[in-house]
Amino acid sequence: MARKPESQFISGVHKYLVHSVYRMKNHNAYVGGIPDCWYSGNKADLWVEYKYIPVSKPRKIVIPDLSALQVRWIADRFLEGRDTWVIVGCKQGGVIYTDLNEMLAGIPPNAFISRIQTRKELANAIYEHCSLINITI
């Protein structure tokens, strides 16, 4: 069975993630809305919901397409002061959404394109967020 593009994208990011950052892929059939991955390092932890868009040049506002349960979970944790990101992947890489307004309302296509990072850069951003010692990988 072929893996979905989102799962392939997450694996592509994890391929570059330093092993000192603990990661847990979340799937719970009984509790909806929990982000795809939880990361933990010696500085902070981070919850990340991944989305994937199949087009390389979006023509309209790029909204992460969160379900109502995901919006509720992410917004509640964000407002508690927890670190929550949404990463929207595409063929070229992905864009990190750290601002709750962007997660809910999206960003214009030109902003999305200008903020694309490679999978390796995304893994490094996760590492730098979670770890005290910052090294470029």
Topology:
Blueprint: H1 5-14, E1 22-25, E2 37-40, E3 45-52, H2 68-79, E4 84-90, E5 93-97, H3 100-105, H4 109-114, H5 119-130
Parallel strand pairs: 3-4
Antiparallel strand pairs: 1-2, 2-3, 4-5
Helix pairs in contact: 1-5
Q: Main attributes?
A:
137 residues, alpha+beta, Trna Endonuclease, Chain: A, domain 1, 5 helices, 34% helix, 20% strand, globular
Describe the model.
By secondary structure, the protein is α+β, with helices and mostly antiparallel strands. The protein has one domain (5-130): Trna Endonuclease, Chain: A, domain 1 (3-Layer(aba) Sandwich), CATH 3.40.1350. Helix content is 34%, strand content 20%. It has helices spanning 5-14, 68-79, 100-105, 109-114, 119-130, and strands at 22-25, 37-40, 45-52, 84-90, 93-97. It has a five-stranded mixed β-sheet with strand order 1-2-3-4-5, with helices on both faces. The radius of gyration is 14 Å and the shape is globular.
